[in-house]
């Protein structure tokens, strides 16, 4: 398992002698053989600016940083793969903040690149290589011509063509899960927000947030255009918007209008679920699926990252319980980070949270963040750090009826039938 590093021009090399190391939180650790899988199709290798890679002398066990001028290398994994370790590095400029991506440890082994990762879900639908950019361009052209006054299609065309967002691309391809952003405002100040950052944060948002409030007509057009098969999904709450439930009135009226015309497919919301009364109204209007974003089931950690405005983690729990009680298929979008999510106290709290709220699915999502900034922000570990692979094993053992995945899933048949009963009530 040899060290992988890059030179100042971005050329990637494998070291002839030193073994590759990784990080778990702020600790340099050895990579275990059972943690490694071949570099997945669709993954990208990137250099980490202002860093030095750290390797290990296999003879002495000594940890050695490479000379200045080289830099550590990380892998950006496609959706569906849970990273188990961070790249092994030290920063040469302590003030520099890495761009908002989820960097994974990578090594050279048996003539190829390997990463420390777990294949957590079926990646077929979300593999970027299965999204033909030419077909997306045709879809954009067709739908913007069909609905020239609909600002949502114009907004989503930028997401699909410039950012190559797969969910917005699906909107133009008429398949799987499609995007319906609705909100330019948010009731949280997430530290790692990908659509809006304070001027003094030191981070650059990789996306631009929408800057208008769509009409019910615009939202309904996008929903009806997409909901044409039993498995189709439309989703409020995208990376290009704020918190969708702040626009609950638009969502409620749009769901009611759409469900008066068709019962096809599923309506989903990706939300922080902090506005419990708003979520109740959206659920009662006919919501089918709800995915709640969280980073922890511990208040101090949750609050440090999300900086909630006018709500608490207790409100999130209340929303999840109500949605589940009304037959909504609930999941969490779990933002995970090696050395933090796998802390003993974090695992115990999350297992109990899932049990209390009757969550059906945990979607593992690699947190896109500068590691040092995140670790400075959150409370220190209270118990043992068990490792990400052990964490996944505990979840699967302690929560046998909960699906461990990475994406929104179409509910099982019995829940799908329950959804049809709700629509026709």
Write the layout of secondary structure elements.
Blueprint: E1 2-6, E2 12-24, E3 27-30, E4 36-38, E5 44-47, E6 51-56, E7 63-65, E8 71-76, E9 81-83, E10 86-87, E11 89-91, E12 103-104, E13 106-109, E14 112-119, H1 133-146, H2 151-161, H3 166-173, E15 177-179, H4 216-226, E16 233-236, H5 248-259, E17 266-271, H6 276-286, E18 289-294, H7 299-306, H8 313-325, E19 329-336, H9 344-357, E20 361-366, H10 371-377, H11 388-398, E21 403-405, H12 413-424
Parallel strand pairs: 15-16, 16-17, 17-18, 18-19, 19-20, 20-21
Antiparallel strand pairs: 1-2, 1-8, 1-13, 2-3, 2-6, 2-10, 4-14, 5-8, 6-7, 6-11, 8-12, 9-14, 13-14
Cofactor: [4Fe-4S] cluster
Pfam families: Radical_SAM
Keywords: 4Fe-4S, Iron, Iron-sulfur, Metal-binding, S-adenosyl-L-methionine
Report on the architecture of this protein.
The radius of gyration is 22 Å and the shape is globular. It is α+β, with helices and mostly antiparallel strands and 425 residues long. Strands 1, 2, 3, 4, 5, 6, 7, 8, 9, 10, 11, 12, 13 and 14 form a 14-stranded antiparallel β-sheet that branches. The chain has helices at residues 133-146, 151-161, 166-173, 216-226, 248-259, 276-286, 299-306, 313-325, 344-357, 371-377, 388-398, 413-424, and strands spanning 2-6, 12-24, 27-30, 36-38, 44-47, 51-56, 63-65, 71-76, 81-83, 86-87, 89-91, 103-104, 106-109, 112-119, 177-179, 233-236, 266-271, 289-294, 329-336, 361-366, 403-405.
């Amino acid at each position: 398992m040899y060290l992988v590093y890059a030179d100042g021009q971005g050329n990637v090399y494998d070291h002839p002698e030193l073994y590759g190391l990784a990080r778990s939180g702020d600790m340099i650790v050895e990579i275990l053989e059972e943690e490694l899988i071949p570099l997945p199709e669709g993954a990208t290798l990137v250099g980490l600016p202002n860093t030095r890679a750290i390797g290990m002398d296999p003879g002495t066990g000594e940890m050695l940083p490479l000379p200045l001028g080289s830099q550590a290398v990380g892998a950006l994994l496609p959706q569906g793969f849970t990273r188990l370790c961070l790249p092994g590095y030290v920063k040469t400029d302590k003030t520099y903040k890495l761009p908002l991506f989820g960097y994974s440890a990578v090594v050279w082994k048996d003539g190829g690149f390997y990463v420390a990762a777990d294949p957590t879900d079926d990646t077929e639908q979300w593999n970027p290589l299965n999204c033909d950019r030419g077909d997306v361009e045709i879809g954009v052209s067709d739908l913007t011509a069909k609905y020239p006054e609909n600002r949502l299609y114009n907004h989503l065309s930028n997401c699909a063509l410039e950012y190559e967002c797969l969910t917005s691309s699906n909107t133009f391809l008429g398949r799987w899960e499609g995007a319906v952003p609705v909100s330019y405002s948010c009731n949280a100040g997430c530290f790692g927000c990908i659509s809006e950052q304070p001027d003094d944060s030191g981070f650059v948002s990789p996306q631009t947030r929408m800057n208008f409030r769509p009409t019910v007509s615009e939202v309904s057009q996008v929903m009806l255009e997409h909901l044409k098969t039993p498995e189709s999904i439309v989703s409020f709450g995208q990376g290009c918007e704020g918190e969708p439930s702040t626009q609950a009135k638009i969502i409620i009226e749009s769901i009611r209008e759409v469900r008066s015309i068709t019962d096809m497919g599923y309506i989903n919301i990706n939300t922080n679920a902090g506005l419990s009364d708003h979520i109740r109204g959206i659920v009662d209007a006919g919501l089918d699926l709800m995915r709640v974003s969280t980073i922890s089931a511990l208040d101090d950690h949750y609050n440090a990252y999300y900086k909630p405005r006018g709500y608490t983690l207790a409100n999130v729990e209340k929303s999840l319980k109500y949605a589940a009680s009304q037959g909504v298929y609930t999941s969490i979008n779990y933002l995970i980070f090696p050395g933090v999510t796998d802390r003993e106290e974090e695992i115990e709290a999350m297992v109990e949270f899932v049990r209390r709220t009757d969550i059906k699915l945990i979607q593992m999502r690699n947190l896109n963040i500068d590691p040092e900034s995140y670790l400075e922000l959150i409370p220190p570990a209270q118990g043992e750090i068990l490792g990400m692979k052990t964490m996944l094993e505990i979840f699967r053992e302690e929560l046998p009826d909960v699906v461990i995945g990475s994406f929104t899933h179409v509910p099982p048949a019995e829940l799908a039938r329950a959804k049809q009963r709700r629509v026709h009530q």
